[in-house]
UniProtKB/TrEMBL annotation:
It comes from Breznakia pachnodae. It is an enzyme of class 3 (hydrolase). Keywords: Glycosidase, Hydrolase. Pfam families: Glyco_hydro_1. Its EC number is 3.2.1.86. One of its GO terms (molecular function) is 6-phospho-beta-glucosidase activity. This is 6-phospho-beta-glucosidase. Signal peptide: none annotated. InterPro entries: GH, GH_1_N_CS, Glyco_hydro_1.
Length: 467
């Protein structure tokens, strides 16, 4: 068989996209709570606080905060071995800089983890998934070294509280988003210059490294990984100028895992900073912190691939779509314009395993699509099954033929949740349909899609039966 007997099959969500209950039990406002809904043509807006009459999808989402027992029971029915989720920092420290944690928030996640463990589901927990306590804006969020200390205190609190319940941790979701979407990555202004973004990224690297070391000292069984936002590109042609332009683009992204997996900044990045006059806010001992805080494994999202070439002037994120100015004529696209490239998943697994020789996890992969509920309540989503089947088949080849060490696979939005890119509910990823619309209206009833039963069979056969 391709996959080990303890392979971690599961699914993934994020607190700000599923929990709702945005002010319940003492939770504070976070950066996601002031992002309005958008769609495939309209950008999400960031408002100055919560404005009455605006639609903020994180406020209600799918109300997983109150439905988590029902949802986890459905995950267990599919046979999940792991559930990738995130803790909302603002539920633990409502202002980010509080002297004491919020007990109600800690208790909630105790209940969530206990529910997972009851079914033999291993929690895989992201510490910061596209939400930062809004109060930390007064410090400049991650541009200020003080926020490192606030984050480390948060990590210390949850590591101690959930020691023995949570083995696998991720520090920052899609950490390379600081280069593209700094507000989501860390509450940094969208118009921040590169010096500001690289300062914030540096502080997140330091914070992550400190968290890794702390977790290991508390419990050597704890494993802490990094999470890369899956941007992978091909050269537009075999013209060496296109090849070098593509290499340059990929290095803009890969320096993030280079730092977290190797424990130091790569020479190519330091030379780039030198040319641009960018300085890092280094303190004495930081080099040792980065080196001692290397991650145990690398996790990443994979949805699509891109193309770059000598005409690529930059990289834009528009209404949840990624654009380099090039398209790939060999690949189909989703309703939201994302390429469908299963073979690219195998390519990415080999790229990372060859580069770092670290265990890997694919913690996001899936198809956002419009789903229709039939008159009898059934939801037929063969397009989702086809997408996942083809990607898992390539994943198997990477393990079986290429020798990649793969720990687990958690498709994104295993239950329908709010889209991070567009703020929509109608862009659905899940195996489980949730009756709620883009305005937060509906019964919130959960229904099994055809893909639910298909994925259950995949897990039962450890990935051998993909029919």
């Amino acid at each position: 068989m391709s996959f080990s007997k303890d392979f971690l099959w599961g699914g993934a969500t994020a607190a700000n996209q599923c929990e709702g209950a945005y002010l319940d039990d003492g939770k504070g406002l976070n950066t996601a709570d002031v992002m309005t809904a958008g769609d495939a043509k309209t950008e999400r807006q960031i408002t100055d606080g919560v404005i009455e009459g605006k639609n903020y999808p994180s406020h209600v989402a799918i109300d997983h905060y109150h439905y988590f027992k029902e949802d986890i029971a459905l995950f267990a029915e599919m046979g999940f071995k792991t559930y990738r989720m995130s803790i909302s920092w603002g539920r633990i420290f409502p202002n980010g800089d509080d002297a004491e944690p919020n007990e109600a928030g800690l208790k909630h996640y105790d209940e969530v983890f206990d529910e997972c463990l009851k079914y033999g589901i291993e929690p895989l927990v992201t510490l910061s998934h596209y939400e930062t306590p809004l109060n930390l804006l007064k410090y400049g969020t991650w541009t200020n070294r003080k926020v490192v200390d606030f984050f480390v205190k948060y990590c210390e609190t949850v590591f101690n509280r959930y020691n023995g319940k949570v083995k696998y941790w991720l520090t920052f979701n899609e950490i390379n988003s600081m280069s593209m979407s700094p507000w989501m990555a860390g509450g940094v202004s969208l118009d921040a210059d590169e010096q500001t973004r690289m300062t914030a990224a540096y502080h997140q690297f330091i914070a992550s490294a400190k968290a890794v070391k702390m977790a290991h000292e508390l419990n050597p069984e704890m494993k802490v990984g990094m999470m890369y936002g899956g941007l992978f590109s091909y050269a537009n042609t075999c013209d060496p100028k296109d090849v070098m332009a593509n290499d340059k683009f990929m290095k803009e992204m890969l320096f993030y895992p280079d730092v977290q997996c190797r424990g130091y900044y790569p020479a190519y990045k330091l030379k780039e900073f030198e040319r641009k006059g960018i300085t890092l806010p280094k303190l004495d001992g930081d080099d040792e912190i980065l080196l001692e805080g290397k991650v145990d494994f690398l996790s990443y999202s994979y949805y699509f691939s891109m193309v770059c070439g000598q005409e690529t002037k930059g990289f834009s994120v528009d209404c949840g779509s990624m654009n380099t100015g090039y398209s790939n004529p060999y690949l189909p696209t989703t309703d939201w314009g994302w390429t469908i490239d299963p073979m690219g998943l195998r390519y990415s697994l080999n790229l990372f395993y060859d580069r770092y020789q670290l265990p890997l996890m694919i913690v996001e992969n899936g198809l956002g699509a419009y789903d229709k509920v039939e008159d009898d309540g059934s939801i037929h989503d063969p397009y989702r099954i086809d997408y996942l089947r083809e990607h898992i088949a390539e994943m198997k080849k990477a393990v079986e033929i290429d020798g990649v060490e793969l720990l687990g696979y958690t498709p994104w939005g295993c239950i329908d949740i709010v889209s991070a890119g567009t703020g929509e509910m109608k862009k659905r990823y899940g195996f489980i349909y949730v009756d709620v619309d883009d305005e937060g209206n509906g019964t919130f009833n959960r229904s099994r899609k055809d893909s639910f039963y298909w994925y259950k069979k995949v897990i039962e056969t450890n990935g051998e039966n993909l029919d």
